[in-house]
Write a structure and sequence with these properties.
Blueprint (H helix, E strand, L loop, with lengths): L5 H6 L2 H13 L10 H18 L5 H12 L1
């Protein structure tokens, strides 16, 4: 593997460094990205909220009909 030195990285443009960061991030498997306890708690909170909100949600078809009715 060809490794970039810090000096070589510094010579990259900001756009090139962002692409490199993205490529590095994308190369990681989900299991290799640990969550902090705070992140795990927030994820659980948001998932629970999504489950609660699903009860009151409407389908895309229902929403389209409602919007069409409002335009009449």
């Amino acid at each position: 593997m060809d490794t970039l030195t810090p000096a070589e990285i510094a010579r990259l443009s900001p756009q090139e460094r962002l692409i490199l960061i993205g490529d590095l991030w994308d190369s990681l498997d989900e299991a290799e990205i640990p969550l902090t306890p705070a992140q795990a708690a927030e994820l659980e909170h948001r998932l629970a909220g999504a489950d609660r909100d699903r009860v009151d949600s409407v389908s895309w078809e229902e929403l389209k009909i409602e919007l069409q009715d409002r335009l009449k």
